[in-house]
Amino acid sequence: WTGFRLKDREEASWFQWFTAFIIGWSLARAFIFLLLDMRFFLGAIVTMPFVLGAFMLAATLGHITSHKTISLGLEGVKKAPIPSLSLLSVLLISLLLTLPNLTAMAGILPSPPERPENGYGSTDMPYEVNEYIYATDYPESITKWWDDWSQEYEWNIHVFVPVGIEKESIGVAIMLHGHDGEAIEVYRDTMESLAGQGLVAIFPQYVSDVDLSSVSSDFELTKLFGGSDHPQHEPRFTMAMHGVDAAFDFIANDTALQSDIGGATIDTNHLWISGHSMGAGSLFYVLGIGLERGWGSESLVLNLEAPWVHATQPVLDGNMSLLPNHTLVHVVEYESDIVVEKCLGRWQYDRLRNRDGAEPLPSEQVLFLLIPSDYRGFPRLIASHYLPAAVVRESLSDQSYYPRIEAQADFISSSAWSDNDSADSAKQWFMEPGEMTDLGEWSNGEDVNPMQIIESPFDLPEDNPGACPT
User: Fold this and answer.
1) Is the distance from CB of 292 to CB of 208 less than 8 angstroms?
2) Is the CB of residue 323 less than 8 Å from the CB of residue 361?
3) 435 partner at 20 to 30 Å CA-CA among 4, 115, 251, 284?
4) Whole-angstrom Cα distance, residue 287 to residue 327?
């Protein structure tokens, strides 16, 4: 309307410059958004494209109505074909940005399920949790790999404990973070979930990026079956293990912590250990040392979320043939993960299932899980690489991640207390389809796409037979 009123006035040219600026500004930002959406947002954000499209649409209509020639209709379009074609292209782009997101912006789409009100994943956990933070010294064999940022960073070990334990012993949880995930805030909710179920939960910070100046320039990286011989494995893995060992010393000598757990014995015979992304690769080394020490000899749960590569160097790869017969495993793939190659988790599954060539574990004890995305509502449920990160916690995390790890923790803590009924109940929850695979309902009553248990992870689709090369 503004453009129509200004069409025959001197201000029309200024208005056209203004609308041209808005069109160019919106196009540039729409292009940037589309690039980010392909690599990061994965369709989760609808407000930005809708707003940019609305700006573009308004500016385009304003430009058309204020143009003396094009505003004449078909006759005007014939007289100015190139500007008309340009504006038509912009108009189509604006509609492509706005129309697919209109129902979401109008509040018509169903909303995702809320966090569970009770049981696993809810705010109602058996124990309150206290956090203890410790600093330790690291040997030169580790610090020599640190880059400038690592030299300045304050590396700590975080220990979360349940308050008011009245048991003789208590099981252990070890969480190994992903690349650049050393800040405890990224995994705080994970640690509180584990300790809230009755475990002493250890979070060792360790380096992600290292100084590789000492590595020979002719070094050639070799990748094999989900692993590699990259030199960075050594400082990462050994620093993580150093932190775990230091944590046990701090726990034993901290009177306040011991008071919180009632002096219960720290029982590493009952162990939960997990790694997210890079942490899943680190897990094999830490677990390998633990198995040599007898950790997990009575109950053991391994949880690998969106796994990254393990080490192939013999001193770092961990001996999975030592896995006890009662080991329970989750290897978890996220459908919309674009950070790690999905075949890596399938190789990790194969390695754990076959115990490095020893007698395989029963298939019902090693589950390969696929967490799907679901775009049918708003906000959309995106199974991205960052599902375990507390800083971006959302509905899909509340349904697919936290209840599952809390059930695993409950199994370990109950086993440590010889509460066989509770342990069996928890095991059934996270090792069988049903409550674990049911991810709730949209507000319109439709089921959210359920978690899938993939029976044969290496049965690759026919249209992508090379998805998991060696």
Assistant:
1) no
2) yes
3) 284
4) 12
Q: How far apart are the first and last CA of the chain?
A: 63
Is the Cβ–Cβ distance between 290 and 241 less than 8 Å? no
pLDDT for 42 equals 77
Q: What's the number of CA atoms in the CB half-sphere (13 Å) around residue 23?
A: 23
* Segments in 37-129 forming alpha helices (H): 47-66, 74-79, 81-98, 102-105
Q: How far apart are CA 231 and CA 129, in angstroms?
A: 37
| Helix-helix angle 11-36:47-66, to 10 degrees | 160
Sketch the domain layout of the chain as residue ranges: 2-105, 129-454
DSSP E strands in 314-397: the ranges are: 328-334, 366-371
Instruction: Give the dihedral sign, CA 35/36/39/43.
Output: negative
Contacts within 8 Å (CB) and 24+ apart, 281-284: 281/227, 281/233, 281/307, 281/308, 281/309, 281/310, 281/311, 282/176, 282/206, 282/236, 282/237, 282/240, 283/176, 283/310, 283/318, 284/310, 284/311, 284/317, 284/318, 284/320, 284/351
What residue type is assigned to position 430 of the chain? F
Q: Which tokens sit at 435?
A: 């409550």
> Quick check: bond before 116 cis, omega within 30?
no
Question: Are 414 and 301 in contact, with CB atoms under 8 Å apart?
Answer: no
Q: Quote the tokens at residue 274.
A: 């997990």
* Per-residue pLDDT tens over the stretch 327-354: 999 999 999 998 998 889 999 999 999 9
Which CATH fold would you assign to the domain 129-454?
Rossmann fold (3.40.50)
pLDDT value of residue 470: 44
Positions of E strands within 335-378: 366-371
- Tell me what pLDDT residue 460 has: 60
The values of phi and psi at residue 332, to 5°, are: -120, 130
Q: Which residues of the chain have pLDDT under 70?
A: 1-12, 66-73, 76-77, 460-470
Per the CB < 8 A criterion, the answer to whether 310 and 226 are in contact is: yes
